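FW: tagging you since you asked about this chain on Friday. Here's the raw sequence from the shared folder, copied in full. Didn't touch anything.
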Amino acid sequence: MNMDPSTEMSWGTLGTIRPFANFNAGKDARDIQAALEKKDAVTLVKILTNRDNAQRQLIARNFKCIKDKELISALKKNVSGELSDLLTALVMTPLRFEAYRLRQAMEGIGTDEEGLLEILCTRSTEQLSNISATYKEEYKKDLEEDLMGETSGNFAKLVVALLKKKERAGEVQTDTEVLSEAINKARADPNPWISILTSRNSEHLNQVFDNLEREKHEAVDKSIEKAFSGDLKLGLQTLVNCIQKPHLYLAQRLDTMKAAVVQGVMVAHSEEDLLCVRVAYLKQTGTSLYTALQRQFKGDHLQALLSICRSED
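HL: got it, structure written out here
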């Protein structure tokens, strides 16, 4: 069946979670209330993984009216462990969830640089601006200031540039020459790399990368590997991977099979492009995500992840 490409690529069509037909927020809220009282995780999973986020927000609002209590608080009180983390993530708005993930990456001893980079490299300028506003609302802190406080040196410059990225026009050939010159120096200069990679669109940058790869006879991330070190190297390589093959990058994140990373990617992308990430995962690992989850997780937590994943590939 031929589809109009604009329809095919519209918001939500590449996600695994769609709006639930015959949705009744009041009934769902009452069913969740009963399930919480009975510690019935099966019902909680069935409802919360089969409604889209807009519907889950309506359920939460109805739950508050019935119980005079936040649904997230009730879930945390009655469900434990990784399942509790997953269900509360589903009840957050997408912006609140991304703000929460950034906060988690900066809290405690040490900073989770990869966690920061995943969000900063895969989200658009508009999304990051909205995430920043939500972060301020939730935590009464400035996201840019927190990022600068948790990172240092050129890596700090990179994460702030990613947070504030603003697209500007550039010449493919000029950008290629500037980047090439910057890594040909005895001591590579990261500033042009940070500036250009955070201010051009993906199509433009992919042309620049093609030019660099022809000139250097190696992949761009290999050139970065040789020229830079530490967190900056990780940051630039992650950014290049996200520009070249964003779904493959997210598939590689899932392949860590760390619960927090898997839940983060799956919930954040469940209504956007998780189908594409699933395809990339299968291509990368030779195993479907649905099967890989069954090897790693168990119980009600596994059932919730499988429900978000939706099906075998």
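FW: Confidence is low (pLDDT under 50) at residues 1-12.
HL: agreed, and Residues 72 and 105 are 20 Å apart (CA to CA).
FW: great, closing this out.
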